[in-house]
Amino acid sequence: MKAVILAAGEGKRLRPFTETMPKVMLPVANKPILEHVFDALKNTGINDVILVVGYKKEVIMEHFKEYNDIKITYVIQDKQLGTAHALLQAKKQIKDSSFVVIPGDNIIDQKSIIKLMNDKSKYSLLIKEHPHPSKYGVVFLEKDKLQRIVEKPPEEIGKFISTGIYKLPKTIFAEVEKQASEGIYSLSAVIQNLIDEGKIINTIQTDAWMDIVYPWDLITVNEAMIHNTPSTTAGRIEKNTVIKGKVSIGKDTKIYSGCYIVGPVIIGESCEIGPNVCIFPSTTIGNNSVVHPFSEIQNSIIMDDVHIGSNSFVTQSIIAKGSRIGNNFSSIIGGKGVEIEGEFKKLKNLGVMIGEDCTIGSHVVMDPGVIIGRKCKITSMKRIRENIPSNTEVM
After folding, report:
1. Same structural domain for residues 200 and 176?
2. Torsions phi, psi of 139, nearest 5?
3. What is the DSSP secondary-structure string of 237-290?
4. 241 and 183, same structural domain?
5. One domain for residues 302 and 169
């Protein structure tokens, strides 16, 4: 059985992190989200994937150009019109009677995919109970059979949502083409039309599915996924370093004397940490990053090529690739009302989100929930209370 992975979207609500890469390439546990999807598929026995790409497709293709664990066939969605339109791009590649459809920006486990593959129904959908169903397609059931999908209802109704992960027959393409001719490009709308025509759509519940909609979701999913990474030590660790729990250290990384690391923690390749740095659980640090002495990092995502100055404190935060943080930097944690793409969210225990290639001077303090765009420059001795758009200089 083949899998079609839908990976053409941008992820506007995840800006600034998706300004230079598609959502599926954002790192979780030091690997792109899409690579976690590949891992799950590989473990089910699926080794042939049709990958629908579009926005910033060259980032995906470059990253996986030497990837051999799964055969990848690329098809391109030039205009991101909708999920059904994305699926339609894979029509010529599907020869089998049925196949699996998976969004490339979701986390799912192999057991759930196997249940879906083994289901005897012609049409099957993975669903999950969710505390905030109105953010998704809410599903209504009768004896595990799908009766109705309501996309993002304005009020909280129902309790189960569609994960967008299906097993479908090859004949679905005729229905997709029919709906597309009427200007309908949503896969959930196509499925609803099949229900209205009397087709039976079976549902299978999963607890393992996770979605990333907003920047802070990366921290939550990273915290969950980091537990699956085994402890490995390929770098050099100096004496008087304390390491507790599950900690992975990449090759050519140097952990200098006096560091205190409590797992789960992942540190990539060719990093320099310390001396006297504290790294606490659920932190990931990408390749070629440097954390200078007497700094502390908690439950955060530090991407590749980041430098964090001495005596800095980073918690519940994301620092994107290539950013340079001066000495005595502090991210304040707390509650914050955040507006993204017209949606207002009230959040707790949130740090800061810093985009790619930012330069931040010494003695800078950032309030909870602040989002700094990419290529920003903030001079020393500043307190940042509001979001800063990309390519801004704060003097």
Report:
1. yes
2. -110, 145
3. E-TT-EEESSEEE-TT-EE-TT-EEESSEEE-SS-EE-SS-EE-SSEEE-TT-E
4. no
5. no
CB 259 within 8 A of CB 277: yes
What is the amino acid identity at position 92? K
Same domain for 320 and 174: no
* pLDDT tens per residue across all 395 residues of the chain: 899 999 999 888 899 999 999 999 999 999 999 999 999 999 898 989 999 999 999 999 999 998 888 999 999 998 888 899 999 999 998 988 889 999 999 999 999 999 999 998 899 999 998 877 667 778 887 888 888 877 776 666 768 888 989 999 999 998 899 888 888 898 888 988 888 888 899 989 998 899 898 888 999 999 999 988 888 888 899 999 999 999 999 999 999 999 999 999 999 999 999 999 999 999 999 999 999 999 999 999 999 999 999 999 999 999 999 999 999 999 998 877 777 666 677 778 889 999 999 999 999 999 998 999 999 999 999 999 999 999 999 98
The CATH code of the domain that includes 354 is: 2.160.10.10
Q: How many domains does the chain have?
A: 2
Q: Which pairing describes strands 137-142 and 145-151: parallel, antiparallel, or unpaired?
A: antiparallel
The encoded tokens of residue 217 equal 């979701």
Q: Which of 213, 237, 254 is a domain's end point?
A: 213
Predicted model pTM: 0.90
